[in-house]
């Protein structure tokens, strides 16, 4: 009888240990860089609120020194023939393994430069560390690329279906400065109407020696009106594209394609950003008089989910 009682006690104690250990892992207990782990957007699924699109209390463990509300924005680094690197395009982290960008950044020959790295966690370009009152944020991460998947119907002449996925060489851990953005899934998709105000983000022109991530308002342009604007440029505008006018006297493009056009949703005491579009075409970046064309992300969610599940 005593042996049976002892065996039951050992089994109970071991079960309690496993539960405790699992809870500690799920909580993301780490040293150094603050990390968030778990099933909030692994490499083969898309995260949903509250695990995407914002610095929610449930996923933000410590406040960053320099507040960055757009922690999903990526930079695409290209290497030229001399071995020098330059950031020429942008992208958006959508889960632990994939960055969403535009196809023209990964399929066309960008002046004999090869896409080599993806940078995440960047806030101010030109400064190795961002510091305030003697304390510094974590350095940004430069990540290797495993594969690039451009949309099979991408047309470089028309700019249609200008979207691509970049699979990172390894999963990235979410931190205070690296988190994914939400995508407009069928149940959260909305019809954008003319005059609606969204937000576009990018890196401003240099302030001193650095470019700083910033944002501006973007006003949605009705599809028929936008199509007329682009007639003279022989660029037919499809419903899978979004047109928006930039904010007066603000430039958030910084030379980068795939800058995010975002919609903020407030629900259940949480604010989350959704990626509605990525900058694709535009002759006067962030102009208040001529629209920029964005790839409409909602039209490609099925394709995205198909690719990341493979």
Index terms:
calcium, 2 domains, six-stranded antiparallel β-barrel, Thrombin, subunit H, seven-stranded antiparallel beta sheet, Peptidase S1 domain-containing protein, globular, glycoprotein, 310 residues, disordered N terminus, 15% helix, disulfide bond, alpha+beta
Query: Within the CATH hierarchy, at the fold level, what is the topology of the largest domain?
Result: Thrombin, subunit H
How would the global form be characterised? Answer: globular
What CATH architecture of the largest domain do you see? Beta Barrel
Rounded average pLDDT:
80
Structural overview:
It is a single chain. This protein is α+β, with helices and mostly antiparallel strands. The protein has two domains: 141 residues, Thrombin, subunit H, CATH 2.40.10; 102 residues, Thrombin, subunit H (Beta Barrel), CATH 2.40.10.10. Helix content is 15%, strand content 32%. It contains four helices and 18 strands. The strands form four sheets. A seven-stranded antiparallel β-sheet has the order 9-5-2-3-4-11-10. A hairpin with a 5-residue loop joins strand 2 and strand 3. The longest helix has 25 residues. The radius of gyration is 22 Å and the shape is globular. The N terminus is likely disordered.
